[in-house]
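User: I'm preparing a small set of examples for a lab meeting where we compare how different chains pack in three dimensions. I only have the primary sequence for this one, and I'd like the structure in token form so I can line it up with the others. Please keep the answer compact; I'll paste it straight into my notes.
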Amino acid sequence: YHYLNVSRPQPQVDLQTAMMDPNYGRELITGDKDSGYFRLHLNQYHTVETITCLSKKEIELGNICQLYGLHQEYMNSLEERFDGGLISDFFQYFREPWSLILYQDRFAELREEIKELLSQPNQPGEESLSEKVCQLVDEDLAIEEKTKLALFAEYNDSLAKQSIENRLFSYLSYNKYHLPHYAGRNMA
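Assistant: Understood. Below is the structure token output for the 188-residue chain.
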């Protein structure tokens, strides 16, 4: 058997005790005796907090470790797909072509550049989208639907949207040989 556990350094806490914390988040688990056991713990912010794998087959350590700290949306709407019964084996799910970008060595850099673009205000003296979202999350994790829609509308009208799209397409173009499954700007 092959075993992998990825988590942040911290004193060991009994799992049952940790799960009683209202901010624990949730666990997503797949597996059977053939495919192996794969557990993802997502924290209250829907970010991968812990990864635990047990398999008869070799575990792709480098790739699986790249999932740590990622928001579930980077993983192709992971929670929605899991809850909809579309994922029965995380080992297989994270080998699908869409996931290649997650393991690409420059992906973390791209995410940081996008964060930077979102932290720039649309107009001098205005709050950035990033600041507005942080303020809302600080007030309450459950953001009302009308507030989400207003943020999306503001994003769609922002300078950041075009900058992010340009940066993303530039990234995909530069890495097209490593990421052939992704469509670029000029593809139909």
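A couple of notes for your slides: The longest strand covers residues 48-55. The first helix runs from residue 15 to 19.

User: Perfect, thanks.
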